[in-house]
Write a structure and sequence with these properties.
Layout: E1 2-5, H1 15-32, E2 38-41, H2 61-72, E3 77-80, H3 91-96, E4 99-101, E5 105-109, E6 112-116, H4 127-137, H5 140-149, H6 152-166, H7 172-188, E7 193-196, E8 203-207, E9 210-214, H8 218-221, E10 223-227, E11 231-237, E12 242-249
Parallel strand pairs: 1-2, 2-3, 3-4, 6-7, 7-9
Antiparallel strand pairs: 1-10, 5-6, 8-9, 10-11, 11-12
Length: about 260
């Protein structure tokens, strides 16, 4: 079994609410720990994450401990950058054993070629402002200046302030753009499946060339994706167990 989850946005809500989101995710991961072999975090685990050479933000410490336990049990964890949490250095890899990936990634499980991405490179949730912000946030010079010139607490607080001001409901245009991009990938590459987050709208879309799944968002809906040898499943955690929302057989893609 392989798990995919995204958009936890730890730190967006109050400290108490954020702790509840984190605890629910840990409970879900532990409920699947015996059967799961791999875990993929498809971005925006944190609402803002700025790692410095000698210290990291405090949010998500319990989740980090859980991820360390997964990798210690030889269950690989792969973390794709989101548009809210791209400023990683080496902590996740060096201390937790978590592979951090900046861009799209291809995974292979149960004979499936799986294209993984957060989705922000395909469509911005904030129009041209979001596109401009993404370019700045990924520019090495801008990142170095931000880390160097601002005290850590100020830098993180500023990033969180901007993130909260930009928060809004799922954008139908972004949802359509991600689906359209996924279908294009299915028809033009060897991928059997495409998985993304970013839109905050959980989705399972079947196409003759394969399947597109969006993990939705954890912090509001507790949705995630589960892959078993014969089925894809869009799931929701209810606090005690996971229930399927929609399922589809694994696809062999185009002949």
């Amino acid at each position: 079994m392989v798990l995919f989850v995204s958009d936890m946005h730890l730190g967006r809500s109050s400290a108490r609410a954020s702790r509840e989101h984190e605890r629910a995710l840990i409970d879900c991961l532990r409920a699947h720990a015996d059967q799961a072999t791999h875990l993929y975090l498809l971005g925006d685990v944190f609402d803002a994450y700025i790692e410095h050479r000698s210290y990291i933000p405090k949010q998500g410490i319990r989740l980090m401990g859980e991820l360390a336990q997964w990798t210690a049990r030889r269950k690989p964890v792969c973390y794709l950058h989101g548009n809210h949490d791209p400023w990683h250095l080496d902590f996740m890899d060096r201390e937790l054993g978590v592979r951090v990936v900046e861009g799209p990634w291809t995974a292979h499980h149960y004979g499936q070629h799986i294209h993984l991405a957060h989705g922000d490179r395909v469509a911005s949730t904030h129009g041209r402002w979001g596109q401009w912000m993404r370019q700045v946030m990924h520019h090495r010079g801008a990142v170095a200046a931000y880390r160097t010139l601002l005290p850590a607490d100020w830098g993180l607080a500023a990033a969180q302030w901007v993130s909260r001001r930009l928060h809004g409901d799922p954008d139908p245009a972004v949802i359509r753009a991600l689906r359209s991009h996924a279908v294009q990938v299915l028809h033009t590459t060897a991928a059997h499946a495409v998985l993304m987050g970013h839109s905050h709208a959980a989705e399972l879309h079947e196409d003759r060339a394969g399947v597109y799944l969006n993990t939705g968002n954890w912090y509001e809906k507790r949705t995630f994706v589960r892959l078993t040898p014969d089925r894809w499943a869009l799931m929701q955690w209810n606090g005690a167990a996971a229930r399927p929302i929609k399922t589809a057989p694994v696809s062999q893609g185009q002949p």
